[in-house]
């Protein structure tokens, strides 16, 4: 599992919760003046994950206002950018005379912690707001500071284009940090920085300035996203993937050389994982052969051999084991 810090204010007495959260925000993000209508019983959660040069934090909290004035900025040596991705609730952000309201799960934005800003987070109903933040040094983003300044507090799409790939990457890490090894942390952070750089460059229409490494990372992410969306297609193959991205099969192979896998192996592993999930779903009582065929394995015997080699059990044994656990 990736190294992470988990915080739950409900383990503290209600009177101590807000003070603890206030100190946590100052430590994990940047000092700010925070106010809320829930000071008497501040229920909030946080999970911080170190990814090499960057730090990603998943936050859940009630409605609040956060103001980082010039006075607090001057006290700290904090040349850091912060990506803000609201998943639920409404977030209004103000920086450098730009004010915007981000639509949850539709937009992300960039803030400069070294400059004053205001953030207002509101929750509709009794639940909590949910936000993912990513902090990185200014030097981590290889784009001109004057260009990045034009984007501060500007809503950028998080469901389409490179922004969608970036958000998918971040949410997969935040949702399941246990699926990654600690040694992968720096690689995952590097991918996030490359995707963010590409998303910002795409928004600024300066993609031609990206480094070859950032372009390769973005293309790899696009390829994996394409594979995920076409796993149930009989036409999915390395050749069809290459054609869809206007590159040769040889170029596609080179793109994944550093990943210790081929595109064919990646497709097969992802399809096997979909089969495993369906076999473990107690509400899905389809025959094993039907599940296998749906995910591109029409030959029952071949599928059974692949599944056993990958998971150490036959499909029948796996399904029976899950059923016993559910009793």
TrEMBL record:
Q: Which GO terms describe its molecular function?
A: DNA-binding transcription factor activity; sequence-specific DNA binding
Q: Has UniProt tagged this entry with the keyword Secreted?
A: no
Domain called HTH araC/xylS-type: residue spans: 221-321
> What are the transmembrane regions?
none
Report the coiled-coil segments. Answer: none
Q: What is this protein called?
A: AraC family transcriptional regulator
Transcription regulation as a keyword of this entry, yes or no, is: yes
Q: Which InterPro entries match?
A: AraC-bd_2 (IPR035418), AraC_XylS_family_regulators (IPR050204), Homeodomain-like_sf (IPR009057), HTH_AraC (IPR018060), Tscrpt_reg_AraC-type_HTH (IPR020449)
Under Pfam families, the record lists:
AraC_binding_2 (PF14525), HTH_18 (PF12833)
| Domain of life per record | Bacteria
UniProtKB keywords: DNA-binding, Transcription, Transcription regulation
């Amino acid at each position: 599992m990736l190294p992470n810090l988990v915080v739950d204010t409900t383990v503290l007495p209600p009177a101590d919760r807000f003070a603890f959260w206030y100190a946590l925000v100052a430590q994990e993000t940047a000092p700010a003046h925070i106010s809320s209508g829930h000071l008497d019983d501040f229920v909030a959660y946080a999970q911080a994950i170190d990814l090499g040069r960057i730090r990603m934090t998943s936050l859940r909290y009630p409605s609040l206002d956060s103001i980082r004035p010039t006075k607090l900025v001057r006290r700290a040596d904090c040349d850091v950018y912060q990506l803000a991705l609201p998943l639920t609730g409404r977030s209004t952000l103000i920086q450098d005379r730009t004010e915007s309201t981000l639509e949850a799960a539709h937009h992300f934005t960039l803030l400069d912690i070294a400059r004053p800003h205001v953030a207002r987070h509101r929750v509709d109903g009794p639940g909590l707001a949910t936000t993912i933040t990513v902090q990185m040094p200014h030097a981590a983003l290889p784009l001109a500071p004057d260009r990045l300044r034009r984007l501060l507090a500007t809503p950028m799409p998080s469901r389409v284009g490179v922004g969608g790939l970036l958000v998918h990457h971040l949410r997969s890490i935040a949702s399941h940090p246990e699926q990654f090894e600690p040694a992968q942390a720096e690689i995952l952070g590097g991918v996030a920085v490359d995707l963010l750089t590409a998303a910002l460059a795409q928004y600024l229409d300066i993609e031609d300035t990206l480094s070859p490494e950032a372009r390769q990372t973005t293309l790899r992410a696009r390829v994996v996203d394409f594979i995920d969306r076409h796993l149930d297609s009989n036409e999915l193959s390395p050749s069809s993937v290459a054609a869809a991205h206007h590159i040769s099969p040889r170029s596609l192979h080179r793109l994944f050389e550093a990943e210790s896998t081929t595109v064919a192996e990646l497709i097969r592993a992802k399809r096997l994982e979909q089969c495993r999930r369906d076999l473990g779903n107690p509400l899905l009582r389809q025959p094993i052969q039907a599940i296998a065929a749906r995910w591109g394995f029409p030959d029952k015997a071949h599928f059974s051999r692949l599944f056993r080699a990958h998971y150490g059990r036959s499909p029948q044994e796996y399904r029976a084991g899950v059923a016993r656990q559910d009793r």
